[in-house]
Amino acid sequence: MVTLLLAVAGAGGYAALTHGGAPAGPAAAGASTSLASPPGARSATGLLDAPGARAALAQLPVKGRAPATGYDRVARFGEAWLDVDKNGCDTRDDILARDLAAVTRRTDCAVLTGTLIDPYTGRSIAFTRGVQTSALVQIDHVVALLDAWQTGAQGLSQETRVQLANDPLELLAVDGATNQAKGAGDAATWLPPNRGFRCEYAARQVAVKAKYGLWVTAAEGAALKGILAGC
């Protein structure tokens, strides 16, 4: 069993993972940087600091990728999005409320507007709820669910898989187009364009895999080790 070493993430997320709390990376040209991420953005139980992530990674099993046979997002991991924590709000609204600044709501749950300081690109993105606009900000599974399925989640109970898919540790509000580009990639095939966020991203992937007893492939483990060595 991996012992998780917890880190307290403040307003800037993983300050300890970004070389002394330096900003996560320059914003794209023309993007607004006047609005910071809110206190508690990206917070979750089980976050690892850099030493903790390196230690946890060293204990993860290394195996080949299992076949994708039987994978189905809804059948295996539940519908998007459920109210797993029973707070009356679905998981998407919970994560939007956590990660966006200047949030307005239609009800106690439904996030109508806000501003995301996107960790994957460093850009500021204005969010407005709507058929044509909601997808500009998506909720990413840091460990893609297909990757989870192929690295151990097949052996988890249905209840645990649903918990994984809705765990705040596993979820980030991010730029929609960048999330689509990631697809089901692991750390060996895709990393955030914002290099300043890669330490936190790698540590978060390790934390999720350790928490749910998943393994890494050799290429994935080498990529994560290389990132975390510089954190």
Task: Tell me what the structure shows.
- The protein is α+β, with helices and mostly antiparallel strands and 231 residues long.
- The protein has one domain.
- Helices cover 31% and strands 12% of the residues.
- The strands form two sheets. It has a three-stranded antiparallel β-sheet with strand order 1-2-3. The chain has a two-stranded antiparallel sheet with strand order 4-5.
- The longest helix has 14 residues, at 198-211.
Distance between the termini: 24 Å
Helix content: 25-40%
What kind of sheet is the major sheet?
Answer: 3 strands, antiparallel
Strand order in the largest sheet: 1-2-3
- Rg calculated over all Cα atoms: 17 Å
Rounded mean pLDDT score: 88
Number of strands: 5
State the helix count: 8
Order of helices and strands: HHHEEEEHHEHHH
Shape: globular
Beta fraction of the residues?
5-15%
Derived from helix and strand composition plus strand pairing, the structural class reads alpha+beta
Runs in which pLDDT lies below 50 for 5 or more consecutive residues are: 1-16, 18-34
Please tell me the total number of domains: 1
